[in-house]
Write a structure and sequence with these properties.
The complex is a heterodimer. Chain A is an alpha/beta fold. In chain A, 35% of the residues lie in helices and 22% in strands. Chain B has a single domain, classed as Orthogonal Bundle (MetI-like fold). Chain B is mainly α. The chains are: A alpha/beta, B mainly alpha. Chains A and B meet through helix 13 of A and helix 8 and helix 9 of B.
Amino acid sequence: MTATLAIRALSVETTDPTPRRLLDDLSFTLAAGSSVGIVGRSGAGKSTIGNAILDLLPRGLRRTPSSRILLGDEDLTALGAESMREVRGRRIAMVFQEPLSALDPAMRVGRQLTAALEAHGVARGAEATERAIVMLDRVGIRDAARSARRFPHELSGGQRQRMLLALALMLEPEVLIADEPTTALDVTLQAQLLDLLDDLRRDLGTTLLLISHDLAVVGERCERVLVLEQGRLVDDGPSERIVAERSARASGAAAVARARAVRPTDPDGTPPDVPLVAADALSVHFLTPSRLFQRPEVPVHAVDGVTLAIGRGECVGLVGESGCGKSTLARTLLGLEAPSAGTVTVLGRRLDVQDRVMMRALRRRLQLVPQDAGASLTPQRTVRSLLVEALEVHGHTPGAAAQRRAEQLLQEVGLDPALGARRPGALSSGERQRVAIARALAPQPDLLVCDEPVANLDAAAREPLLALLDRLRDERGLALLLISHDLGVVRRLASRVAVMYLGRIVEQGNAAQVLDAPAMPYTQLLRAAVPTGRPRRSHSGGGELPAPLAVPAQGCPFHPRCTLPLKDEGCLSERPVLRAVSADPDGHQVACPKVSLPPSP
Amino acid sequence: MRALRLPLGILAGFALAALLAPLLAPYDPIAHLDPLGSALQAPSAAHWMGTDPYSRDVLSRLLFGARASLGIATLAVAVALSLGTLVGAVAAVRGGFIDALLMRCTDAMLAIPRLLLLLLVVAASGPLPPAALAAVLGATGWMSAARLVRQETRRLLATEHVKAAIALGVPRRTLWRGHILPGLLPTLGVAATVAFAAALPLEAALSFLGLGVAPPHASWGNIILEAEGRLLRAWWLVLFPTLAIVGATLTANLLAERVSMRREDAA
């Protein structure tokens, strides 16, 4: 039933009087039932391929007349609008990157699935509903019959992405185009979703075209990989070869920077005597809004009894799945959120959110580079005026001196001072990230909190930015709190690491110990989920972060997902506390009474 | 920018004609030229747009009338926009009860037909000088601006860049001037052109009813008033001012649409 999809001389150009080519003469074949990946940087034209195949190019772009797209013996470029609509969804389906914007917010998810069946005249009424529920069950949405009556916003991020997959596979298409299907997800969800995609593809015999900026993801899941650069195919081959060649080349470039990075890290990772910022038994609770006739307010423990210290010039990594409380912890350390219990101490002084004078003085010392740093820059202002403003707010001499200092800041973060005259929109995302860092450096802080500093950047722009952060730490003695779900990023910069699960620190210690030889099953799960580029043999650990209100009320919060063979009744009744597993009292700590340290090499 | 050039050019033409009226007008707009000989004449070489019952030159009155009509509409827009921005921004920032109160007042104002409201005010106060007329027009036309500004301010207050500026500790005045107002400008542009397109025909209607610009001073509306009782026979007294009103209003609407398209493109 499955046909071969062949792309012949596909070019896409702008419809201006002077056409510019976005895709240039692409030819490749997807054999029936095969899986092929396309990798490339952002802007290489990856998404344009999917849109060109389905004839969904935005206004202003068109396929050149010589382009051919053959599905079996049928030429899709020759089809009229009506026949093309039949092909879309029915024979070739697409999974989009942003699950929230790809789902209709005002339609129950079950209805969206049945609408797809009805639109193509496959089934209707009770039969359609039946099939929708079967499909939801198949993509691993629990309690499918009930979930079908929910709206997209009532589903978790992972469920939404599963829902998109259900929508795409509902009509059992011959070809599935997945455009960055997991980029918005954290590593464990990403691994689960890709596993699911693999399974369904094999069961249904679907041909897969997987588009991603992440070679590791593509290499792991596809037999063949195509490399796209500026609209041209520059490489095509078995994924093993491409992954091996490309990663060798990338590591060559990064090797120098990395060699520098490894040296200054503190070998034993012990916190210095007087910490810059310290949290002691810190908890932050949010109350869920109470409604009429509903149970009274239940506090959500976003941060639950965390003790953590950051010393001068130290880089501490904070890892965990999205929703585990990383960002709330950081905001509380910065005094942007009031603790419900416990204390935050900055240079020996206890932080009091009510004391505005002290907060103003301390906020200068602690700066945040927000998660979407590019969006933190007012689009109508020039980069220079934003930097000058940040300087003046923190008491720098105004006028020409501030102008000069702004240019210095730009140089410090490795940007041409001439960029100061531009507006944020005229910069690349890597440059915007640097401007946000320069702005945070303006008040000469002692601590920089970086929330997912490279999550929005493509692979090539990441390493220089990480090198910059490392240089600032090294040269200025700037302490860094690095929040990320990407273990590679944390391993690269941090000397100490704390792993968070549901608001609690479950493992902490020297970065090498914790990330290279994790003791806790949760950390192992995070580590196993990191894509490597090598084909996967076993499935990644199951389960997903429970909704905050569904956290087990007693016992180990992780026990429903725990894979430890030692798991017993004690895990259901006792809350584990952090305990040292190495001789050094400040060394490796875990929040599990059962695990022991793997034998050191 | 290219899309804005045409409507902006036409409006600039109207404004220029109004400003240069004393130079361009062939006759005095108010003096009765020859009440017996040349009253109510159809367009001719001497009077391109004919004359009115008092033998005044319609072209000259149209040019001077542009000063009154466009001036009052512009001033009305300034009043409407200031009021609307104040109400909208306060509602967006304060939220809660204040927001609900201000918005319900806005809804209530919108529920009353504007022309009726204007007639009531003018009937109560008697004929108004042009500046007061503009103020009254503005005071009855701020509601859509308030709604637009409230919506946009709420959006801007939730954006990362405004939150980042607050976290940076930027003083409140700088926050508004440097981070919120620049984002609000396209919306204000749309609100201004829409308000202008609404104010212009309203002033004309009031003047036509004899409640706006008081004779002998000309406005586009009260030129038509002179054709009272002979609307079809003295067609030139109706056609030319109507063309001016329709032309300026349509151009303002076109500008509003183009500005809002640009705003959406930028977003």
